[in-house]
Automatic annotation (TrEMBL):
It comes from Phaseolus vulgaris (Kidney bean). The chain crosses the membrane at residues 890-915. Its main location: membrane. The lineage of its organism: Eukaryota, Viridiplantae, Streptophyta, Embryophyta, Tracheophyta. The keyword Ribonucleoprotein does not apply. Keywords: Cell membrane, Glycoprotein, Leucine-rich repeat, Membrane, Receptor, Repeat, Signal, Transmembrane, Transmembrane helix. This is Leucine-rich repeat-containing N-terminal plant-type domain-containing protein. It comes from the Eukaryota. It is a single-pass type I membrane protein.
Amino acid sequence: MNWVLLSYLIIFLCFLLHFPSYICLVCNHDDKYALLQFKNTFLVPNSSLAFDPCSSHFSMMESWNNITDCCGWDGVTCDSKSGHVIGLDLTCSDLRGELLGSNSSIFRLRHLQQLYLDFNDFSGSSIHSAIGDLVNLTHLTLSGSGITGHVPSTISHLSKLLYLGLISIDLLLLLNDPTTSYSEMRLDPYTWNKLIQNATNLKEISLGRVNMSSIRESSLSLLTNLSSSLVSLYLLDTQIQAKLPTDIFRLPNLQEIDLSYNENLRGELPNSNWTTPLRFLSLSSTAFSGYIPDSIAHLKSLSSLTLRDCNFNGLLPLSLFNLTQLDQLDLSENKLVGPIPTHITKLSKLSYLYLSGNMLNGPIPRWCYSFPSMLSLDLQDNQLTGSIGEFSTNFLQYLLLSNNKLQGNFPNSIFQLQNLKFLGLSSTNLSGIVDCHQFSKLRALVYLDLSSNNFLSVNFENNFDYILPNLQYLNLFSSKLISFPKFLAPMQNLQGLDLSHNRIRGSIPNWFRENLLRSWKNISSIDLSFNKLQGHLPIPPNGIQIFLVSNNKFSGDISSAMCNATTLYVLNLAHNNLTGLIPQCLGTFPSLWALDLQNNNLYGSLPHNFSKGNSFQTLKLNGNQLNGPLPQSLTHCTKLEVLDLGNNNIEDMFPYWLETLPTLQVLSLRSNKFHGVINSFHTKLPFPRLKIFDISNNYFIGPLPASYIHNFQGMMNANDNQTGLKYLGNDSSYTDSIVIVMKGQSIELERILTVLTTIDFSNNMFEGEVPKAIGELHSLIGLNLSHNRITGTIPLTLANLSNLEWLDLSWNQLKGEIPMALTNMNFLEVLNLSQNQFEGVIPTGGQFNTFENDSYVGNPMLCGIPLSKFCNEDKERATRSIVDEEESGFGWKCVVVGYACGIMFGIILGCNVFFVGKPQWLARLVEVVLNMRLIRTNKKPYKS
Ligand SMILES: *[C@@H]1O[C@H](CO)[C@@H](O)[C@H](O)[C@H]1NC(C)=O
Ligand SMILES: *[C@@H]1O[C@H](CO)[C@@H](O)[C@H](O)[C@H]1NC(C)=O
Ligand SMILES: *[C@@H]1O[C@H](CO)[C@@H](O)[C@H](O)[C@H]1NC(C)=O
Ligand SMILES: *[C@@H]1O[C@H](CO)[C@@H](O)[C@H](O)[C@H]1NC(C)=O
Ligand SMILES: *[C@@H]1O[C@H](CO)[C@@H](O)[C@H](O)[C@H]1NC(C)=O
């Protein structure tokens, strides 16, 4: 029987039996074949997912076949009169493959009004311009499916759009393999402007991980044209670099605004005339600044306010605490000052209060301990004082008060909070004794951090009871522990353990080794560094990501059993007494980005099989006895930023082939047996990002490598466009450190400032002149050419190095006068010109007035202050330079200021830096996409 006959038969039966019309819909023939064709473009799903955002997974298309009527198919809605397909919902349908290619049959469904394709796997597909043919679309959502490419300009033809959802991550892939790299969509201003101008009824705009970096304020202000319709505006992680017009906050119907993770989106909150229905406002990780106005309290419907990690300053707005609907308040990571209000009247729904990372002072008010609806209280990283009161709320799940100036006794009422999951009370001045048996009621506890409480005695060592059965993270660093907490032994769920900076001695107990390999199946991070552990290294199991055991006394070989831990991200075995060879397998771990084996007694060669596409950013093998030539496979480490091979016995020519590494910033080959001439110039832009270049204490000969010096782009403009201090690396689990000779002393920098740019060629056998091009390295902070055979005069261009803080040219054969122009180097703190053949008068003025005798000794023909040898024209000069100083306004005051402003001074002061890791924005995107899924499943408009 063919389909025509069948259709007629159904219509006839309907007519005969008076069925309601929707049962008897007959699907349009062309639409049906378009759908069947669409079905055939997809692969049949086969993989099972570890994590699944879809509550149920259908292969909806299973019910699609050429026998049944398409209006009855899963996910298909037809118009009741015409039988045309007007709705297609393939959310969570496990579709995999290329979507919406130019000839996709979906574009033949001209009557479509609603098209939902979220949570499938269309990675790499882009939206074809034919989407503009579906002019009757009111709902278009493609979120969480990995769509990339340009949003076609024809999307502006969809003038009836009400809901647009394009969040460009592949959720299914991502949640099952977090290492997936994710690409993005692009949306240009032309398309955006047309769309906003044409689709004037838009209610909801959800764009995430769409590159809108060329969108400007004028385009954003077009949103005000949607004033009567716009209800939800979600623009997450869109790279917008513009100021948001304040009027957006005044659109009369807006209920939800989420603009988070747009680091360069600026703006301020309005002082008046806020949009009244606003329920949800999130501006996390944007550049919004200014005060949080008290008028924000006029938003009577506001239930969630998230302004985390912006630049807001001023007082914590007390009026906020009189809002009655507020359920979540997050003002963390700003620069807010003042106290938390002691008296509040309403705020009866508040469940989540996050104020961490500000400069709040005063005590924690009493209501925080007793607020009935409170689930989360995060006040850490502030300057709160006083003691912690007794808790009388029973529902609290998150309590984070770390890093405040709290004192007094450890509050015993905490041990009664049976619902507590997270407890962070590190770095306080609390005193008393905490014994592990007190935790017996906290059976829900997942995270416990009591680290760095100098006045608290933490007794976790002599207890065999089965406590804290659900604990996943235990942080007890700097807690004066002398042995491993035995209560960890029966735990199954442990994921993270930090026992660093304690006094644990002896070898690792057997139960700990056993657990590590067998019971702790989910362990991902272990930190035992800075103890006094000895004996053989513990073996990290497969599955672990972070393994830190540096600064102990471990000895013996690195066992080849280490090769099972292929999941490692960070491996730090530095500062132990390890011997033997480096296991070759380490070069093949796909995710390992930091490998630190420095200061052991390892010998043999480097791993010689660094695999293609590896993740290495930091490779520190310095301070061992490694020999042999360098493996050329290091060129596969294309993400490498720090390569430190100093203090080994490596015998090789200069590895010019490292020139091509695009992000290499630190290269140290100091104190090895490198030799030969560095005359290679093989790449157009060699070492494009290099900032620290240390090849001192080797056997290099020939001229200084002028071709490199001429091209070190990274040393020419490192300070430009930079606000504040930034350090290398982006992860709190490992920070790059480096030993450099700075101002004549060997110093270990625990973090590497990205502005630190130094060259050290000292203690080689370089000869010839100092290349003039050195004056182009404007960002250079330190230059050491000492102990070589350099001849000629000091090039005048050297005076252009206006950021230079130390300059060592000692023990060479330089001659001529010391150029007067060098006195313009305002930051020069250390100068060593000794043991050369300089002649004439030592210049005076500027920083030169601070240098002493030993900067110049061993130059028999040099004269003037501070040497005891006078010059003939001394008197005349001295008076002249004083006049010069006064005329140019350059006197002692400036010298002192200059001294204090040196970049390296910042390091010594130790500046705090926050790393905003990607996972945060990702988490929010995932949350938004998942929420939309929830919302959508509740309000599916066309399925009863
Ligand atoms: C229905 O589909 C099957 C399998 O693809 C095919 O063999 C058959 O010819 C189709 N029937 C009609 C009526 O198109
Ligand atoms: C689009 O909608 C309009 C108005 O409802 C209707 O007249 C028109 O036929 C529709 N177009 C298509 C292709 O369905
Ligand atoms: C606006 O929408 C209409 C109707 O779909 C379309 O014909 C027109 O081309 C669109 N204009 C722009 C600028 O896209
Ligand atoms: C606020 O609203 C009032 C009354 O509508 C109006 O007069 C005033 O100009 C508005 N202020 C701003 C800054 O828009
Ligand atoms: C909060 O409300 C109380 C009582 O209504 C009032 O006394 C107090 O001034 C209000 N605080 C602020 C900052 O508006």
